Every structure is written in structure tokens, then in C-alpha cells.
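Hi Q.,

Before the meeting this afternoon, I wanted you to have the alpha-L-sorbopyranose prediction in hand. No need to reply - just skim if you have a minute. The sequence and ligand are here:
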Amino acid sequence: MATKKEIRIGLIGTGFMGRTHSNGYNRVPNFFPDLEYTPVLKAVCSRNAEKVKAFADQWGYESIETDWKVLIARDDIDAVDICTPNDTHAEIAIAAAAAGKMILCEKPLSRTLAEGQQMVDAVEKAGVNTTVWYNYRRIPAVTLAKQIVDSGKLGKIFHYRANFLQDWTISADVPQGGTGTWRMDVEAAGSGVTGDLLAHCIDTAMWINGAIVDVSAVTETFVKERMHQLTGKVEPVGIDDACIFHCHFENGSLGLFESTRYARGHKALYTFEINGENASIRWDLHDLNRLEYFDYADESIVRGWRSIHVTDGDQPYMDKWWVPGLGIGYEHSFIHQVADFFKSLEMGEKPCAPTFKDALETQKVCEAVLDSAASRSWKDTGVAGKIN
Ligand code: SOE
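Predicted structure with the ligand bound:
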């Protein structure tokens, strides 16, 4: 067997995303054995030494650090994976770029467009490889949706509709800030559902349906004050609890997006639907192996929504998994991202999208959405052309 080229990973952050990414690195050699590259879990970093040691033992990291600057300075690390809260992405990424490391950064790229731009400038100056973990692109049914749209089967596209609904913050007792609830703190997160959830919807939408050129948005903060875990005081809430926006895509279609953490009964309901002149597509994260497809060209007596179970070997990624009919899950989207990142290194032609530069386009839309809601007016996004 040919010797694999090793990519020595330094992971920063041991929360939910630290786990999804670590699982990705661990599984790739098993399920993508043909890749030239293979991950080596060299080091994991988090401030709490006891917790980071337990994480390293659980996921197979060779060593631990409690200071990310030390991790970045190590010359046995090739790629830095940023899984920390959003307020640390820019500082870590800029330092990692200066140290010549590849960077895999959890979404959203940054809290603000300006911060994201600094990150893009830094990685371009350093010439390092990057990717941002917009993982939903790599669920086979979502990748298939993209392939179907690219094939032209839908014809002219009129509508793109997406929702991301949750209900975990309805109680006024949920605190803001600190471990576990940093997403509720505007300083740490940058925004609420716009950066956390709509960013996913925007990334998928622009990848499949092209640039969003302008937006009109409304946001709401239903609970105005919450206990801050770091200060112990009740403080004003600065994030958007809910956001609805409509928009124009560059291809002439209309978009409608909604996200909230106040949709009682919904835990993580990400859905999208695309309506074209000939056909429509819809997808639902709660039934993620299925893609629904309606084709007006079908004979009228059998015309209706088809439910495609995306588990056949000739459908995206599925030749790597089980046998037709047996589904996969959420975690596989991260495994696919690791595999695609390594494949892009192997091929050396195209970087693994979305790169920092690609993800900056999503930041532009998020920023325009928040500006539009604040000013109660339409805003141009400045996004144009093909989105990788
Ligand atoms: C928030 O609850 C969250 O974990 C997001 O941060 C993730 O990006 C999303 O995929 C699921 O929901």
C-alpha cells in the first residue's frame, strides 16, 4: 500500500462542533480509503486542561494544549481547525495564516463583514488553503438538489424558500454568554439566528441558485433581557431571536427566508424548496436522506411529488457508504467535508468550497439582512456572479 501523506490536525475548541469535526477526521480513513491524504490528530486545545485531556482521550488526539497560540506555533501542526465561539475566529485564523497553516473554520466565518474581510485578506496574503464548515451542502440529497438544478431540469427558477426553525431559547430563564450559551450573546456570536442559522440557508441557497443581490428584512428580539453567565447580571439581549427576509436572486427568482428559535415544536427544522417552470425540489433536514421532486413533464395520470431516497451508489457520496436503501445522517456531512478538503489538496486545482473568500459572500448577505432590519429599508448585498 502506498504511504499516505499526513495532514497533522490541531483542533481548537471541544464543544459540539469539536466533536463533529473530530468524528469526521476519525471516519475518513475508513470510508474514503483511496484518498492520498490522511489526518493525524496531533493536538487539541481548550482552556480547561482536565476537559481537554478527556476530549483528547475520547477522540484520539495525541497531545493537548491550553493556549491556542502555543498550538499554532507548533511545527508539527499542518492544519488548524477552529471550533471556538465566533468572536475568536478572526484572531485565531489571522494568526494561523501568518504561521502558514491550512485553516478549517466553523461557520459563520466571522461576526461581521469587516472581520471576515480581514480574515480573507490574511489567508490570501499567506496563500494558505481554507474551508468553512457549511456542512449541509454535503448531505447527499442537498448535493443532488444542486446537481439537478445545474442540469437545467427545473428550467427558469421563480422561487427559493428556506426555513431554519428551532425552539430552545423560548424560556426567559435561558442565560446569555459563557460556555453553552455564547450563541445568545451578541459580543460572542455577532448576531442571533441570522449568523447562526440563516447563514446555513444563505450558503446553500447561493451555492444552488446563485447570488442574492438585495434583501428586505425584519428581525425581533422577543426576550429583551437575560442573565449574563460571565457577569452574573441581567443584561440587555443584543441578538436577533427571529429573522425573516425576502430578496432577489441575480437569476431573477425571488427568495423567502425565515429563521427563529421560537418555533415551539421545532428542534432544528431546516427545509428548502425551489420552484422552477418545469419542476420543483424540496428538502427537509428531519428526513435528510430524501429529496422530493415534482416534474410537470410526467404523464398526468402519474404526475405528483416523487420522494427520492438518496442512497444509491450513483448518487452523491453514497458509493462510500452502505448498500442502496440504507441511510446516513447529519454527522456524515462533516465526514464528507474532510474528504473533500483532502481531495482538493490531492487534485491541487480547486480549493474546497466554501473557502474563506466564498464564505465572505454569505457574510455580505447576513450584514445586509441585519442592516435592512435596523434601517427598515431594502439593502444591496454587493454579491454577484457564481458562488462556489
Ligand atoms: C444552533 O443550535 C446550531 O447548533 C447551529 O450553531 C448549527 O450550525 C446548526 O447546524 C444546528 O444548530
